[in-house]
Amino acid sequence: MTTPFYLTLKEIWRNRGRFLLFSLVIALITLLVLFIAALADGLGNGNREYIEKLNGELIVYKSNVDLSIGASRLDRSQLRAIVRVPGVKDAGQASFSSVVLLQSEGKKFNVALIGVEPGKPGEPPVVLGRGLGDKSSSEAIIDRNVALRTGYTVGDQLRLKAIQGTQEEFYDLRIVGISDGRQYSLQPSVIVSHPTFDRVKPGVPVVNATDLVSNLIIVQLDEPLNWKAMAITLANQVEGIQAVDRQTAYQNTPGYSAQQSTLDTQRFFTLLIGVLVIGGFFQIQTLQKVPQIGMLKAIGAPNLLIAIAALTQIVLVTILGVSIGALATVLLSFTFPATIPIVFSPMAIVIGVASLMLVGPIGGLVSVRYALRVEPLTALGLTG
Asked: Can you tell me whether residue 15 is helix, strand or coil?
């Protein structure tokens, strides 16, 4: 069994320049596959992060709005009715809008403004500082993405700009806490209490509102595993609502499914291109060494030895190329600023590398089959 490995290593060493160049081609394919996977995770996180991490099992919408957050409107009476349903532990309202965060030197960028009830489901836990005060109208929690892009920390003042009516209005809020990543609609998040949200959000400002109207109600359950039955119970006992789990909620955010389908298609075609490129390279390699294969067969080398040697060569070159590509990807990942939505999750890297390790042998199977069909006399030019 050592003979095919010896032949493989001997050939790779004698043609090391050629095999190194092809390993670099595989490395570039690896780089592309891993970056597409990271981009899919990054863009997906940007759309689903806040909803996916909510501290509640069910997300309640107004019925007949096709799970559109922007179209959903729920009032305080519906919240009270939900809390009274047996099996509901707690519930809180959440609202969403978009404003501009202003920095020094004229820098600015859009952020998601999220209104929550302090201490209720919907308010994210903080990793630094504290949560929102019960009646505060000038406090805010920023997510990790805002902190990374601005350098703000607990105790700093941030300024938001919103269009109220036809005028630009500016609001200064004090940062009391920093949460982990809580992006919404591909924007970093600023989380405030509902009174502040109603005052700051673009549009017509709400003054002394008698009833709190929100986009969603976040529901915690006594038995989280029983969420399917509770979703049906809530819809039956509370008029005008629809309850779904977090995954269904973020999959119905605008553009999420189309975005992920597009990136998955790109990833599939990149792997397909990898199969064709690797298959084509080893097919050319096999055509160039037909006389050598014929000589091996003429001196009694069995097909099994030739097949093992060919597959070993394919696997070794693929391992080298994928390793170089994965290492280059890791090194490049440290150079990207926080504004680029790329996330290298361990699972995505493992799946990407495993897929590429399978692509090599699959792409080279045609060349192996061709090598096994070589006739010794024909290859050596000794036929009549």
From this structure: coil
